[in-house]
Amino acid sequence: MRKFAAILAISIGLILCACGNGAGAEQPEKENGNTAGTGQSGIQNESAADAGQPELLNENTPIVRELGTQDENTVVTDVTQGGPYGEISISIPDGWNYEVYSTDSDGPMSEMYGICFYPEGVAEGYVKLAYFDFFGVCGTGLAEEKATVAGNDAYIGTYDNHEYWDFISFRGECEGVVALTYSVGDWWGEYVDQVMDILDTLSFDQNVREGTAYIYSSESQISEIGLSFSLKSISSTGATLVFHQYDADAPKGELIFGDDYFIEVQRDSKWERVPVVIENAAFNAIAYVIVPEDSVEQEISWEWLYGKLASGEYRIGKSILESNESGGHQKHMIYAQFILEGDMLQTANDAGYYMCTGYPTPPRQE
């Protein structure tokens, strides 16, 4: 499977006032057996937008889209992708290709898991349906309209008044699911109705949960030293820690970290230390240097110290030492939250975290 294009934020969590332009994504590879296709359909768009006037968020009357009628002989494939927040499902008709990706797939950190689909035979471009633990948009040239898609309230966002939308952010039972378009301009006019028919089959079952995920929070970044902290390859027994130094001028000296860490679990909105399974545990006395404007990774296994973690929401704490001109050190604590399989106790949105950068925002396409 070809890797999807990642939208990466250089400074995670910084509140900015405008979003940058994104590049077009690479066409996903077509794999045997992963074909589904198009049914002809007509979507009724009953709103002021039909007259060329987009409906803004402060309007009260939403756009109501009626699912078109497909030929009874159309072959439809039901596609699902599970994840730690719920299971995403859509129906893909014959004539369309699709790919699924999990939380372990390569991609931007904010996109947890999902499904992408595109017409057979197109040179590039696709629609991606993904779960976001937070989703924020901003910038000039953005128009948003209220709609009903798959029986749920949704907001459709378009940059610079081009003919295709950039994102659909779902509410209601599909809260957290977002549809994004990538490089679809060449074929959008012919296939837009079929895209909307596919999205009208969306369901999101929050009772079916699986897998793991990193959760961004304000504790995952220390702007004072220009450092962010995230996780990948998470399991019940370990993870890969990722430190990214994004501002070389922020620290007063060299940044280093060691092998030591601790893990906490969230219970009743409070963090509690996870009990260790051995007494008098000790870590190796070693120092790792964080290179300015670069990333460093550390693969760890915590099974020896904590055993296998049960389902729940956790955070891992790491100490960072910042050297100074006099030879001393200042200690900083940084945390990375993650979820294992079961119900999430508090989402990033519930905690009040919001990003206004290009990181969770779909690319602007000219």
List the helices and strands and how they pair.
Layout: E1 35-37, E2 44-45, E3 63-66, E4 76-81, E5 87-93, E6 95-101, E7 111-119, E8 126-132, E9 142-149, E10 152-159, E11 167-170, E12 177-182, H1 188-199, E13 203-205, E14 212-215, E15 221-222, E16 227-232, E17 238-245, E18 255-257, E19 262-267, E20 270-273, E21 288-290, E22 295-301, H2 303-306, E23 312-323, E24 329-340
Parallel strand pairs: 3-9
Antiparallel strand pairs: 1-6, 2-3, 4-5, 5-13, 6-7, 7-8, 8-12, 9-10, 10-11, 11-12, 14-24, 15-16, 16-17, 17-22, 18-21, 18-23, 19-20, 19-23, 23-24
The ordered H/E elements are EEEEEEEEEEEEHEEEEEEEEEEHEE
Strand-residue proportion = 35-45%
Distance between the termini: 27 Å
- What spatial form do the alpha-carbon principal axes imply? elongated
The low-pLDDT segments are 1-69, 342-366
Provide the structure class.
Answer: mainly beta
* Fraction of residues in helix: under 10%
Annotation field: number of helices: 2
| Number of strand segments | 24
Largest sheet report: 10 strands, mixed
User: For the residues shown, what is the average pLDDT?
Assistant: 76
Q: What would you report as the Rg, rounded to the nearest angstrom?
A: 22 Å
**Order of strands across the main sheet:** 1-6-7-8-12-11-10-9-3-2
